[in-house]
Amino acid sequence: MRSEVFYIIIGMALVTYFTRIGALALFRFTGVPTWLNRWLKYVPVAILTALIVPSLLLPKGYLDISLNNHYLIAGIVAAFVAYKSRNIIATLGIGMSIMFVLKLI
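Given the sequence above, the corresponding structure tokens read:
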């Protein structure tokens, strides 16, 4: 292994460690403030949205909001199922089934 890669890995590990230990030391005695706790609850939703929306709207590298965009159609159906059922297995199953059927057609 090249030494640069090793140094990058060590550097990333140190940065990760110090950011986590810093937050732990900062909130050790006082606890996480209420406003920060409320704000942090939205982080997973924001990250998932940032990962999913571009793949639904830009499957070929450009904006495609048409009936030929199978990803968008399956994503809309899956979002509706997730909203109504709140069941991850049903959402994944129906979303993948819709995608499979659209690819066959």
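The mean pLDDT is 93. Try to locate this feature in the token string yourself.
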